[in-house]
Automatic annotation (TrEMBL):
Name of the protein described by the UniProt record: Molybdopterin oxidoreductase
The Molybdopterin oxidoreductase N-terminal domain, residue ranges: 9-49
Naturally occurring in which organism (per UniProt): Oceanibaculum indicum P24
Binding site for Mo-bis(molybdopterin guanine dinucleotide): 115, 327, 425, 429, 472, 500, 726
GO cellular component, one term: outer membrane-bounded periplasmic space
Gene Ontology molecular function: any one: oxidoreductase activity
Domain Molybdopterin dinucleotide-binding: 626-746
Keywords: Metal-binding, Molybdenum, Oxidoreductase
Matches recorded under Pfam families: Molybdopterin, Molybdopterin_N, Molydop_binding
Protein family membership: Belongs to the prokaryotic molybdopterin-containing oxidoreductase family.
Co-factor requirement: Mo-bis(molybdopterin guanine dinucleotide)
GO biological process, one term: anaerobic respiration
Location of the Molybdopterin oxidoreductase domain: 53-509
Cofactor comment: Binds 1 molybdenum-bis(molybdopterin guanine dinucleotide) (Mo-bis-MGD) cofactor per subunit.
Length: 769
């Protein structure tokens, strides 16, 4: 719908209408049915036309002159040569064929982790997978950066991923039945701006307001006060980062010591409490995990811990644990302990009780919505069965042939010759970026499709300019939001940009499988096809939606709300024999024989407290005395929209803002508006200073997403000028079980930057030869 209201479209940060004038997007307004729109949509016009757009195909000079592997040590530091589409497609297709024929499909790494954009047809990563499967397959990535440890752990102990990816027990049930909501990592509204696949309506804030009105009490257990909105008047327990497992153990210990735990629930619905109990009581290691013990670790007074345990046992309690807690060293443990604690309270499966991972982490977590399939593009299947856990990318590139543990397996890293990224930004998402720079210099060839000159595009050999979502027709939907949105093309492609689908179709043609890749459909035929396949699938669930024409004209369909609140594990609670969990015992596993059988010292058979390598309790604090919280940015989605209005307005002297406590600032002579150097043994960066008591003492908050901008790209480890925290974070697995990323376990030091400020150049065009 163009009309007076603008072109209907959608994004991970919300649905909107784009105002178009003379073929340019000049503004955006929120979708009429959005209850609490995010300001992030207003960043889109600026980003769309930003100087950082890639306008034509480009090839790194050394690669062009010397062929695959040419001057690979200069990847990320060398000039690019503009080439024609035909030449770029010819070269890329020939290189893919060379590697496949001489090293096998396994040597092509196409994991390409990343969020892409909201549209389901033009979903960049899926398009790449479909293309690579069409040529025989590729090495994949499993899990995600969001909750990798949970993805590997939860099937062992509760038999499914529902409690982390949803549907969670819905907000309507919480408002009605919950009395106390205990939030580890808060319920951060900054994160509820986003949902993968799009947000028709932002429901978290309105539901939190209703919960508050209904009298639900909130406890925000977090290093940051503003992880809970002011209007919640939450009690703030400032917890030392990464110590939640100790705190949860102490809550559990108090329940047992005061006989407040629900033994009948434990007997009927769980296994292994008796293996866990001796550890809790200190019979196995001489250390009772009581409140006095935990107070010394987590910084919360013992009496407060005991009081909280009593309150939790005395009323209908929902334990909400954020995804952030498991993006840390031993990230499996706070999750296993959340489940254990909830089981001990005996309220799992009761309305308003139990636990859930991720309230507030994405916009539609907890949204009341019927459980239905979502429209999706099909990636097909290839013949390669090799994969890596998502965050082991640098290990894989640096150590081909090395073995590692993962979820009970001994696995071997493949020897990768081509890395292909489309729809993700590893130089945003990965840890220890200086190490990643070295890793990216290993393969023969790196190919990237991107709309913008992100650091990942800069570290490629062949760069294809991709269109952004506003330049094409699509449909968008998250599996939890109640809207499926039509996404009408607003403007013509910028520069010579092409849709990812067309880029891959061009290569498929050169490799002889264009027809199989496109199935002969045009863009609009695909959009219609995906809608109609979805329409048929949900008809099996007795849900009827309008014809494609009616949907496209109206701009959206709304999925009807369920009649009653959804409660996680309701069926299991009602009849645990008929509705067994998909675990070996059919019950919740507080002790897992399977995990114990793996023999991992860093993840034994029941939840345990294990000290993180880097936290405020470790010896490393002598050198680096502050815990870095590189959490999600309120001003953008990861690296996306860092070149847009909202993010740019937040920068301090061009640098990403970093929050630190007044006492920590005073001790270092820092004040608001300064630029500081933040550093540890892995790297150093410049960030702007905000002095604020929203962060607890000892913690600095520097959100992710400032585009990686090294002072000397040819020398990995040089000063990062812009404030990308991943030059500081540690690149290790959570444990041998899940091998998840540990971004939230990181110590740093901060000092005033007195020298001249180097210019931020991340949004500029790279050097062109
Ligand atoms: N330190 C630290 N690091 C973290 C985290 C943390 O908490 N702390 N969080 C982690 C988490 S949870 C996640 S999910 C990751 C996110 O990491 P990513 O998902 O990799 O981050 P994005 O910036 O969303 O990257 C998506 C890229 O796709 C591009 N793109 C968008 N649309 C299209 C398109 O149509 N075609 C093509 N070809 N490209 C497109 C965008 O320009 C962008 O560069 O980061 C992780 N990294
Ligand atoms: N605006 C915006 N929203 C986003 C995203 C974005 O980039 N921008 N990214 C989206 C994505 S991909 C994801 S996966 C989710 C992530 O959702 P989360 O993983 O929950 O996100 P974070 O912001 O990393 O963490 C939330 C809060 O947890 C607290 N926290 C961190 N470590 C600890 C700890 O050890 N203990 C306790 N108790 N608290 C801790 C921090 O104070 C932090 O503000 O967010 C999504 N939402
Ligand atoms: Mo994520």
């Amino acid at each position: 719908m163009t009309g007076g209201k603008g072109v209907i479209h959608s994004s991970h940060w919300g649905a909107f209408r784009a105002q178009v004038k003379d073929g340019r997007v000049v503004g955006v307004t929120p979708f009429e049915k959005d209850e609490a729109p995010s300001p992030l949509i207003t960043s889109m016009p600026e980003a769309l036309y930003d100087e950082s757009r890639i306008r034509q195909p480009m090839i790194r000079k050394g690669w062009l002159e010397e062929g695959p592997g040419g001057r690979r040590h200069l990847r990320g530091a060398e000039a690019f040569v503009p080439v024609s589409w035909d030449k770029a497609l010819d070269l890329a297709a020939a290189e893919l064929k060379r590697v496949r024929d001489s090293h096998g499909n396994e040597a092509i790494f196409g994991g390409s982790y990343g969020w892409s954009s909201a549209g389901r047809f033009h979903h960049a990563r899926t398009q790449l997978h479909r293309f690579l499967n069409g040529m025989g397959g590729f090495t994949r990535q499993v899990q995600n950066y969001s909750y990798a440890a949970a993805i590997t752990l939860l099937p062992h102990i509760v038999g499914s991923l529902e409690s982390v990816q949803g549907p969670l027990s819905s907000w309507d049930g919480i408002a009605k039945y919950t009395k106390l909501m205990v939030c580890f990592g808060g319920v951060p509204l900054k994160n509820a701006q986003i949902d993968s696949g799009g947000v028709g309506s932002h429901i978290t804030q309105p539901w939190l307001e209703r919960c508050k009105q209904a009298g639900v009490e909130f406890v925000n257990i977090s290093p940051l006060r503003d992880d809970a909105a002011d209007f919640l008047q939450a009690e703030w327990l400032a917890v030392r980062p990464n110590s939640d497992t100790a705190l949860m153990l102490a809550l559990a210990h108090t329940l047992v010591a005061e006989n407040l735990h629900d033994q009948a629930f434990l007997d009927r619905y769980t296994v292994g409490f008796n293996e866990f109990l001796p550890y809790l009581l200190g019979k196995t290691d001489g250390q009772p995990k009581d409140a006095d013990w935990a107070a010394g670790l987590c910084g919360i007074p013992a009496e407060t811990i005991r009081g909280l345990a009593r309150r939790m046992a005395g009323t209908r309690t929902m334990i909400a644990t954020a995804w952030s807690l498991q993006r840390a060293d031993h990230g499996e443990q706070p999750y296993w302990m959340t489940v254990t604690l909830a089981a001990m309270l005996g309220q799992i499966g009761l309305p308003g009780g139990g636990y859930g991972f991720g309230y507030g982490c994405e916009a539609a977590m907890g949204a009341p919505r019927k459980k239905l399939p979502t429209p999706n593009m099909l990636a097909g299947r290839g013949s390669v069965d090799n994969f890596i856990p998502v965050a082991r990318i640098a290990d894989m590139l640096l150590e081909p042939g090395a073995t590692y543990d993962y979820d009970g397996e001994k696995r071997t890293y493949p020897d990768i010759r081509i890395v292909y990224w489309c729809g993700g930004n590893p130089f945003h998402h990965h840890q220890d970026l200086n190490r990643l720079v070295c890793a990216f210099r290993q393969p023969d060839t790196v190919i990237v499709n991107e709309p913008w000159w992100t650091a990942t595009a800069r570290h490629a050999d062949i760069v294809f300019p991709a269109t952004t979502t506003l330049e094409r027709n699509d449909l968008g939907s998250s599996p939890r939001d109640r809207f499926v949105m039509a996404m009408h093309k607003a403007v013509e492609p910028v520069g010579e940009a092409r849709h990812d689908h067309d880029i891959f179709a061009g290569m498929a043609e050169r490799l002889g499988f264009r027809e199989a890749f496109t199935e002969g459909r045009s863009e609009m035929e695909w959009v219609r096809h995906l809608y109609e396949v979805w329409q048929q699938r949900i008809a099996e669930h007795d849900v009827t939606v309008p014809s494609f024409e009616a949907f496209w004209e109206a701009g959206h369909v709304e999925i009807p709300a369920p009649e009653k609140p959804f409660t996680l594990f309701e069926g299991f609670r009602a009849d645990p024999d008929a509705q067994k969990l998909d675990t070996p015992s059919g019950k919740i596993e507080i002790f897992s024989r399977t995990i114990a059988g793996f023999g991992y010292d860093d993840c034994p058979g029941h939840p345990v407290w294990r000290e993180p390598k880097e936290w405020l309790g470790s010896e490393a604090v002598r050198d680096y005395s502050l815990h870095l919280m590189s959490n999600q940015p309120r001003t953008r989605l990861h690296g996306q929209l860092d070149n847009g209005t909202v993010s740019r307005a937040s920068k301090i002297q061009g640098r990403e803002p970093m929050w630190l406590h007044p006492e920590d600032a005073a001790a270092r002579g820092l004040k608001d508006g300064d630029v500081a150097r933040v550093f540890n043994g892995r790297g150093a960066l410049l960030a702007g200073v905000i002095v604020s008591d929203v962060v607890m003492k000892g913690v600095v908050q520097l959100p992710t997403g400032a585009w990686f901008d090294p002072l000397e790209p040819e020398h990995p480890g040089s000063l990062e000028k812009h404030g990308n925290p991943n030059v500081l974070t540690r690149d290790r697995g959570t444990s041998r079980l899940a091998q998840g990323p540990v971004a939230h376990s990181c110590l740093v030091e901060v000092e005033l930057w007195r020298d001249e400020l180097p210019e931020v150049t991340a949004f500029r065009q790279p050097a062109v030869a």
